[in-house]
From TrEMBL:
The keyword Disulfide bond is assigned to this record: no
Origin: domain of life: Bacteria
A molecular-function term among this protein's GO annotations: molybdopterin cofactor binding
UniProt KW keywords: Iron, Iron-sulfur, Metal-binding, Molybdenum, Oxidoreductase
Cofactor(s) required for function per UniProt: Mo-bis(molybdopterin guanine dinucleotide)
Keyword Phosphoprotein set for record: no
Native species: Rubrivivax gelatinosus (Rhodocyclus gelatinosus)
Domain 4Fe-4S Mo/W bis-MGD-type: 7-64
Pfam families: Molybdop_Fe4S4, Molybdopterin, Molydop_binding
InterPro entries: Asp_de-COase-like_dom_sf, MoPterin_dinucl-bd_dom, Mopterin_OxRdtase, Mopterin_OxRdtase_4Fe-4S_dom, Mopterin_OxRdtase_prok_CS, Prok_Mopterin_Oxidored, YoaE_C
UniProt protein name: Anaerobic selenocysteine-containing dehydrogenase
Family statement: Belongs to the prokaryotic molybdopterin-containing oxidoreductase family.
Amino acid sequence: MNAAPETRVVHAACPHDCPDTCAMLVTVENGRAVRVQGDPEHPTTNGALCTKVSRYPERTYHPERVLTPLKRIGPKGRGEFVPVSWDEALETIAARLKAIAARDPEAILPYSYAGTMGLVQGESMAARFFNKLGASRLDRTICASAGSEALLATYGIKAGMHVEHFAESRLILIWGSNSITSNLHFWTIAQAAKRQGAKLVCIDPRRTETAEKCHEHLALRPGSDGALALALMHELIAHDWLDHDYLERYVDGWPALRERALQWPAERAAAVCGLTVEQIRGLARDYGTTQPAAIRLNYGMQRVHGGGSAVRLIALLPCLTGAWRHRAGGLLLSASGWFAGRRDDAWLQRPDLLAGRQPRTINMSTIGDDLLREASPGFGPRIEALVVYNSNPVAVAPESRKVVAGFAREDLFTVVLEHFLTDTADHADFVLPATTQLEHWDAHTAYGHTYALLNKPAIEALGEARSNAAIFRALAERMGFDDPCFADDDETLARRAFLADRVDLGSLEQRGWAKLDVADAPFAKGFPTPSGKAVVDVPGLGVPDHVPNHECAETTPELAARFPLAMISPPARHFLNSTFVNVKSLRAVEGEPLLEIHPDDAAARGIADGAEVRVFNERGEYRCAAAVSTRARPGVVVGLGVWWRKLGRDGTNVNELTHQRLTDIGRAPSFYDCLVEVAAA
Ligand SMILES: Nc1nc2c(c(=O)[nH]1)N[C@H]1C(S)=C(S)[C@@H](COP(=O)(O)OP(=O)(O)OC[C@H]3O[C@@H](n4cnc5c(=O)[nH]c(N)nc54)[C@H](O)[C@@H]3O)O[C@H]1N2
Ligand SMILES: Nc1nc2c(c(=O)[nH]1)N[C@H]1C(S)=C(S)[C@@H](COP(=O)(O)OP(=O)(O)OC[C@H]3O[C@@H](n4cnc5c(=O)[nH]c(N)nc54)[C@H](O)[C@@H]3O)O[C@H]1N2
Ligand code: SF4
Ligand SMILES: [Mo]
């Protein structure tokens, strides 16, 4: 007689770097995860996951999962390894790290980002480990720090509207965001608003699938958002579409901002943005005369030199019109500030283990240069060891030629904690098998909504995989770190992560999620700054203005003459940064690495749709297929990211072309501020 399969449903959270942080339900039959679904009860998840995460079991049981520790036997980058025992791997790694630390612990660098957004498998035991060691610190800037620091400087907190309230907005500006790709559950809410009569306007150089479903699309030039915001202010002032009472009470520095905006008539901005004066005036009229009006700002517009200043300017727009008085008005870039600073939590990360030491900080966005740097008084010791987890820098960091050269250094000792042999893992001395979200405990905050989530393990760890936290616990033991905090297990870390937040721990336990207690219209009566007002003139930064790109006709005319096309490289819909590129069913949908180019720019270069092209500049060359399409505006090409280099046509990806110059605020990369030329191959 057949026994009925033992079926369980486990509450989990999507771990990916995505604003939606969905609540997942994992169905487990006889110990195997057979299905993941969106939790229908969780308000923003609303029963749906995106296509890529619906394939999470396929990724978890992927035949190429790394399931034992691996030791390198071939040249760096070749990906030639043999399996070794955990004992051998941990013993060898600990011995190397000890030897380097005995000379100078700052020669060791952790490198991690948001492969998982979890508080436990992100920076908990790992941070404790590197704090105790006194390793160099990593400035985690690769994605959001320009916008985050701009928001913090303006509002005093990295936070904004509740995403749910966009459903009641009458006008929604989707600004620097391809919501259907990278913020799907917001798009569902925007659709609800549209059905109620709201107007949707998309501000994006690319005619994305989101842009074509909005009522209007302003295809501005990359890096011109600050100019657009200033011209909108100019129009708001000229027509007196201002909330004078709100400005008086809640904005510190309005006269200076007014003076700045008056320098930006629509004609001036139109020339900078590559828009018509009518487009700018029309948008200003809509924004100035519609309440409640909401802005869904996203990180795509801050990956340029002036990204920080542009975010400051856009963040001030709802202060001019008093949109913040309504719960369905204002702006949302990030909600993460509502989570009481959990990501830097003293208990999870134990900065006190530094015991007074102040190691140097290395910016993750300049890892290419920094791995190639010699020891010097300004820099400190040469980087001798790297421990990489939750990140794939060889694929995602800018100016790959230097990144690859750095990772290929024979004298660099590299340990990579991974699920797969990524471009980065291929360069490791040791690869350590990590568990996926289905196999470990975690606790999640979110940056696109205001719910905390608890992730319970649904299945046993596959093979010999261990969670990141478990791996750092084991390494700590081998290093002889005997502080009791190195004994905390993953469940303890996950359960304690939210003790200081304003969440209902019972709901977290039973439903897997709990809403934070955040005011409905959070900035209706001012901001959490010392003055209680939004700040225009930030100490050290001044009054914001438009900052032109590092690379453009205005700042680098000679370069622009040789490399006349501006390249942006936003994410492909079915990948998540470089994650999922190796999942066949998803790669099949994306096809192959593409460069979208406008028909006029293609014709001028004799490039046919589908032809192989060389995309190049002084930093490198990348070969891919041309997609001749009006998705790209004239003068702008779109290299959809972020492919694994080894799965591209010539073993490179778009980051072969990007540079390491940083944003005006936040020390972030300016991926979308990049001049190239394209030729038929
Ligand atoms: N499917 C999918 N979802 C994802 C990701 C993914 O890789 N794939 N990545 C996740 C991560 S890590 C992040 S940070 C977010 C990223 O998502 P977003 O924050 O939305 O940022 P991007 O996708 O980088 O860019 C969004 C849009 O901005 C446009 N853009 C580029 N330059 C400019 C500019 O100068 N001005 C304006 N106004 N627009 C510009 C791009 O064409 C793009 O359509 O998405 C997350 N979600
Ligand atoms: N040209 C260009 N470059 C970009 C971008 C762009 O738009 N254009 N986007 C940038 C942005 S916004 C970001 S955020 C970065 C993202 O860069 P990364 O944070 O490096 O993100 P991923 O490429 O998704 O790589 C994450 C890796 O973590 C691994 N991982 C996932 N979960 C775990 C776990 O629990 N344990 C361990 N050990 N590993 C795990 C995954 O297998 C994956 O290989 O890329 C940036 N690079
Ligand atoms: S990647 Fe984003 S949309 Fe997809 S399941 Fe995860 S949180 Fe939801
Ligand atoms: Mo990101």
